[in-house]
Design a protein that fits this description.
The protein has 97 residues and is α+β, with helices and mostly antiparallel strands. It has two helices and three strands, in the order ββαβα.
Length: 97
């Protein structure tokens, strides 16, 4: 989520790693039963204030059959990410025999 262009917008980013999160912005991570709002250390107040509303709009628009009343939206700050956020980025490699 960014407002670099003068208005606040969110766009989908696929195939990214935690290291790709830019401190100038706010990101959403949807793990189905929880939506994380990751707040970069240098994100601006407009992005921060609008993040919860945009996350709610996103959740209202998804059509994947989940019970939206059971989805938790939570914020986490860059550098203070909880383990249940960081584990979403672990890439498992299959064992080679």
């Amino acid at each position: 989520m960014s407002n670099n262009s003068g208005f606040t917008f969110a766009k989908e980013v696929v195939a990214f790693a935690q290291e790709d999160l830019l401190n100038d912005d706010v990101y959403f991570l949807d793990s189905y039963d929880k939506i994380y709002i990751w707040i970069g250390n240098r994100s601006n107040d407009v992005e921060k204030r609008g993040a919860l509303k945009k996350a709610g709009e996103y959740l209202a628009a998804v059509t994947d059959g989940r019970d939206k009343d059971e989805v938790v939206i939570t914020e986490c700050e860059a550098g203070k990410e909880p383990p249940d956020f960081t584990v979403q980025f672990i890439q498992w490699e299959p064992e080679v025999a």
